Amino acid sequence: MILSALLTSVGINLGLCFLFFTLYSILRKQPGNIHVYAPRLVAEGKSQRTNHFNLDRLLPSAGWVTRAWQPSEEDLLSTSGLDAVVFMRIFIFSLRVFTFAGIIGVFILLPINYLGNQLSIDFSDLPNKSLDSFSISNVDNGSNRLWIHFSAAYVFTGVVCYLLYFEYSYISSKRIAWFYHSKPQPHQFTILVSGIPVSSGSRVGESVESFFTKYHPSTYLSHTVVRRTNKLQKVIDDAEKLYRTLGHLKSKRHTQQRFRRDGFLGLSGRRVDLLDQYEKKLEDLEDNLRMEQSSLAGEEVRAAFVSFKSRFGAAIALHIQQGIDPTEWVTERAPEPQDVYWPFFSASFLKRWICKLVFVVAYILLTVSFLIPVVIVQGLTHLDQLEVWFPFLRGVLTITFVSQVITGYLPSLILQLFLSLVPPIMIIFSSMQGYISFSKIQKSACTKMLWFTIWNIFFANVLSGSVLYQVNIILEPKEIPKILAEVVPAQASFFIAYVVTSGWTSLSSEIFRMFPLICSFVKQHFTGNDGEEFQVPSIPYHKEIPTILFFGLLGVTYFFLAPLILPFLLVYFCLAYIVYRNQLLNVFAPKYETGGKFWPIVHNSTIFSLVLMHIIAIGIFGLKKLPLASSLTIPLPVLTLLFNEFCRKRFLPIFRDYSAECLINKDREDQRDPTMVEFRDKLVTAYQDPALKPIQYSGSIGRLKSPLLHSAVA
Amino acid sequence: MILSALLTSVGINLGLCFLFFTLYSILRKQPGNIHVYAPRLVAEGKSQRTNHFNLDRLLPSAGWVTRAWQPSEEDLLSTSGLDAVVFMRIFIFSLRVFTFAGIIGVFILLPINYLGNQLSIDFSDLPNKSLDSFSISNVDNGSNRLWIHFSAAYVFTGVVCYLLYFEYSYISSKRIAWFYHSKPQPHQFTILVSGIPVSSGSRVGESVESFFTKYHPSTYLSHTVVRRTNKLQKVIDDAEKLYRTLGHLKSKRHTQQRFRRDGFLGLSGRRVDLLDQYEKKLEDLEDNLRMEQSSLAGEEVRAAFVSFKSRFGAAIALHIQQGIDPTEWVTERAPEPQDVYWPFFSASFLKRWICKLVFVVAYILLTVSFLIPVVIVQGLTHLDQLEVWFPFLRGVLTITFVSQVITGYLPSLILQLFLSLVPPIMIIFSSMQGYISFSKIQKSACTKMLWFTIWNIFFANVLSGSVLYQVNIILEPKEIPKILAEVVPAQASFFIAYVVTSGWTSLSSEIFRMFPLICSFVKQHFTGNDGEEFQVPSIPYHKEIPTILFFGLLGVTYFFLAPLILPFLLVYFCLAYIVYRNQLLNVFAPKYETGGKFWPIVHNSTIFSLVLMHIIAIGIFGLKKLPLASSLTIPLPVLTLLFNEFCRKRFLPIFRDYSAECLINKDREDQRDPTMVEFRDKLVTAYQDPALKPIQYSGSIGRLKSPLLHSAVA
Question: Terminal CA-to-CA distance of chain A, rounded, Å?
């Protein structure tokens, strides 16, 4: 790619971003869009719909930037929870890393690269200069200037490791402080026990009761046996749907302002009949449901939520193997009640294990077979290749603008499109794998997405997309540095374009919320829905975090290869910081709280990026005929991995569990709390399956919030 | 190697074994050797020295075989502990596996191999037939007979997995039953806490006391702070030595029956002076020691043994992270008091971690550099190579007997010699790695030795010993099956000879106890020591288990390649069963009890052998032009690894820890035990460093047993 193609791409994207941000600043002020751009504020009652018109509503403004900037981390913590704070720390960490990298890269490495003569390109014509002349490929073989790159790699690794340590330690302390300040919550007192052995003739509940009263007499409080409610859930969903339609119809009869829309549908004549008919149907369904609830209650799963009187009591039962047979009485931490993923609740130890294996294999297969679209996309950056394949395109491709758009913009857009299909698939895989909570499903999907992205975007692109070639690289480990050193710098221009197109565009589409906006528009204008029935979305960490981390990986690996990528990344992270802050404050409401458990993924990904960078460095210095530098780089990945190992020992346990010290202190604090008696009463029923809770629709028409606590994640 | 060379080797070794066993059956009846052949019985007072002469003493007999055969497993459990039972189960398991393998191998695979024509060797001259004609190499390429080998691999894997499962389950139940029947022991109630944070001005003991009384008020009993006693230990050793000499001199003055030996030494004139002089010196040393004990007591290490009132209480503190910082208040299970390895007690978290890393690297370096002697030994089996290197040997090597001895016997003997140096080195490495007990050191050394043996004997031999070649094989995983399939069958004759020489000889030297016999002889006849002062040896598991497992690996990998190895292995395991039973009953006394924790090593090693066999099978079927069989073998290692994963989940936790159910039941049993009060009093001082215990030699001359509880392992 030449410089002018990059500039075209930057220009298009800057324009698009500017357009989207301007549109956003106007559209967000329209009262009809309040459910799209501030659903969270509406749900919390902080935002009131004002219908009076003023000119200010039509002018773009940057006030939202200031409002997103202002709240402190403490404010964010109190409104959006620790997970949101940790999410924002990714940007702060990345900004620190890439500001440092940017200074070194642009002011030291870039001039050195540009002054090299290896690629011997004409000096005069800057716009037509290949981007490769800004990369390390342009430095002369055996040149002593490469020692500057070598030092930069060491210094950069040191700085990143220091920042990683600092962040890990900061978030650890945040997590502990957050735990100390948390109110008593059911999941802190509860564990999930599966593989409960049941003697013939007795029931699961009896078995649990007798086991825990025998072995934990002083701390055991209560239990809730898990039941299979898939069928029941279907009936409830039907009732729910009916109830909503009914509520909708009723509200229309009383509110006069919606007449306009009624006429639009042409249903005004049959309105009352329909209402009565629906109410009758709903009552029938409810009777049906109550009968099913009592008859299906017998379908017990050999698993139960067991609650204890203290957090420490729950921790004891959690950490010590309970039964003699390790496959029985298997304990795990209970998720928050609203976080439990009820639909897939397979209790058998063996079944869960097999499911896990099957879906890990499925994940690997998907990751590998996804290469096919990537290969096609990769073809677009090699125009000559494309011309060979599709000769009829030759005429079009000679037009400069078309070829620039195709090489600079289209590939990333198509990749983006394919990629957007993957996160939901990963969620399905993770949920099938047998995780019991949305948070765990999302965390697992996040890791899956991360490796998927790294493999399918980074490796598939640099390795020319040939599946066979990729398999070969795993099987010849000693060749890896050499191969990577050859192919990674060659793809620098693709990834710079990728940051500009995919990165910047993803942010503007994130803030613009195109899809919800269209949905809301269609709802309001065609179905007559006034938007009062809506769900506050939760942030899809499994989609966002891998994307952000992937840009981090690009920055780290290309830091000394092609420092030209760094300014574009810095722009991305600055924009992302503001955009996501805005979204967290206005749009997304937390559905659950993991207490910062996403951070270790960020840490691991950064360590992986560093080691990848080192491996490429080893190869590059070898290729550049500087074998001494190549050998001297070898300690760098070793030291980085040792540092990682140290962090794993020093911080990771904090993210897994709370220590006895924390738990006991918190328990003692509770003893002085008079509300604990009330809390314990609630605790007993906290983990009841929502499908088994008594349901009463017919009398309660008019309520807006659904009686069901759970909803889909993605 | 040709058949006659193998037969020569078998002949020599059978003769040697017969000789050693005969000598053993005579020598063991001599009263002077009772400390060599039955030290355990002497220590337990079960064997009395009878000096009256009868003819029977000079005749070889097989009575010891019957006596070793008779005791049941229960008897062995009560006299030698669970570890000894588990050790014997290795032989029972191996006998079962190789009886089955032997039947299939010798009666089905061997004839098929022999009837092949691939190597086209003359059929008539059996003694000069190469051993290769009994191996799979002789089967015709593409022959359908290979499907029998294929089926044999599947059936054999199935049987081995079934037996593995059965053994794991059997030993697990034994372990739990053994725990239920055990008396209260200090290590069940105690944990070792390291990384204790100490605020300035306070002492470690105070910190421990305040932490555990705060967080475990109901279960905490007492603590013993660990102290650095290396210097003190040296003084004690000196005193100990002096005390022994003194005791020895004294006993000689009073017992009249030792006059014969006194005259031999010619020291009778100065006897009394020496005694007084020594006693004076010992008293001085003791004063010195007491002073040092009080002055050095301040050198506290930031670690302490913390005892609890119940086993469950100890388990709670063990399994739940105690402090907020995971590198502080690090808990681990306390070893038995006599099992604690005091000399190396590094308490800092970072120091222990670095030590571990350093010695793992040292271990890898040793394993690799050990190849040099192996290469030389390997040269001996290639006579032609040897003649090229040392032309002057040509004359000698043409003599048939010499060349047969060199190819059949010498290589394994030299290997054996080098290998005997390795176990002590592994013990040193493991102890430097920071393990806190002899049992852990031995377990770690056992694993180290196992991989060392597999790598240096198996892989170094099959891969022609070239270091470079071996590094290449790691770096080209896809070539592994092909390379192994080429080289492993070629070394069949070497390993058959190895089983016969190294295996059989090691057993006869084990029972004959050459080295202790010589030591005892020298002591009795030259130093005038009457043998009353002796230590009962403990079985060096780290040396024995890897050897036995290595023979198992040979049997499993060569099972379908060269079934001729199986009868020799069966002989080995039969002999070993009797020999080790005899040694366990008469010679070795258990120094500590791990409760069968060595079994997982056996399990893993067998799984590794199976997978190695499968990989070779994949390669062999490929080489033999039967690609379908090669592909159909691929599920076999996958299934085996899944089986292993299942076993890890099903059984391994039992070997790591006891479940809450076990611990609480056992604790409740204790509550009815009136001796518990007394036991708890003892518990408080159980973990005092022996170097800090009050020492009183001067008044107690005449006692035979040392006041020190600990002694070297190897």
Answer: 37
pLDDT score for A51: 62
For residues B544 and B635, state if they share a domain: yes
Cα–Cα distance for residue pair B17/B10, rounded to 1 Å: 10
Do B466 and B530 fall within a single domain? yes
Tokens describing residue A204? 């699961």
Residue A384 lies in a domain: yes
A661–chain B Cβ distance below 8 A for any pair: yes
Strands B190-194 and A220-227: unpaired
For residue B639, what are its two tokens? 């299934």
For residue A125, is it within any domain?
no
In this structure, are B486 and B363 located in the same domain?
Answer: yes
Residue B194 sits at φ, ψ, to 5 deg, of -125, 170
Distance CA(A557)–CA(A546), nearest Å, equals: 16
Q: What digits encode the pLDDT tens for the residues A364-415?
A: 888 877 877 666 666 666 666 667 766 777 777 677 777 777 776 677 677 7
**B656 occurs within a structural domain:** yes
Cβ <8 Å between B659 and A323: yes
Give pLDDT, residue B5.
79
Distance CA B663, CA A320 (A): 10
User: Do B371 and B280 have their domain in common?
Assistant: no
Residue A489 and residue A554 in one domain:
yes
**In terms of domains, do A619 and A587 share one?**
yes
Q: Is residue B457 within 8 Å of residue B374, measured between CB atoms?
A: yes
How far is the C-alpha of A196 from the C-alpha of A323, rounded, in Å?
A: 9
Q: Mind listing the pLDDT tens digit for each residue in B286-303?
A: 777 777 666 655 577 888
Pick from A316, A324, A653: which is nearest to B176 by CB?
A324
Neighbouring CB atoms inside 10 A of A576's CB total 24
Q: Which domain holds residue B7?
A: 3-119+133-184+351-664
Specify whether A426 is located in the same domain as A557: yes
Residue A675 near residue A260, CB atoms below 8 Å:
no
- Rounded to 5 degrees, φ, ψ at B625 are 60, 45
Classified as helix, coil or strand, B554 is helix
Are A34 and A67 in contact by the 8 Å Cβ rule? The answer is no
Confidence of residue B557 (pLDDT cuts 50, 70, 90): very high
Distance, in angstroms, between A467 CA and closest chain B CA? 16
Identify the DSSP state of A336: P
CA atoms within 13 Å, Cβ hemisphere of B707? 22
CB contact under 8 A, A653 and B478: no
DSSP tally for chain B: helices H, then strands E = 33, 4
Q: How far is B646 from chain A (nearest CA, A)?
A: 9
In a domain, B710, yes or no: no
Condensed to tens digits (0 to 9), the pLDDT of residues B582-594 reads: 999 888 888 888 8
Size of interface A-B (CB pairs under 8 A): 97
Burial of B516 (0-12, 13-18, 19+ CB in 10 A): middle
The DSSP bridge pattern shows strands A300-308 and B220-227 to be unpaired
Q: In this structure, are A222 and A288 located in the same domain?
A: yes
**Is residue A577 a contact partner of residue A89, using CB atoms and an 8 Å limit?**
no
How far does Cα B419 stand from its chain's mean position? 13
For residue A475, which residues of chain B lie inside 8 Å, CB to CB?
476-478
Alpha carbon distance A560, A580 (integer Å)? 29
Rounded to a whole number of angstroms, the distance from the CA of B177 to the nearest CA of chain A is 11
Kindly state whether B469 is in contact with chain A, defined as any CB-CB distance less than 8 angstroms: no
Distance, in angstroms, between A300 CA and closest chain B CA? 24
A130 and A119 in contact (C-beta within 8 Å)?
yes
Quote the pLDDT of residue B470. 56
| Structural domains counted in chain B | 2
The shortest CB-CB distance from B653 to any of A326, A474, A657 is to: A326
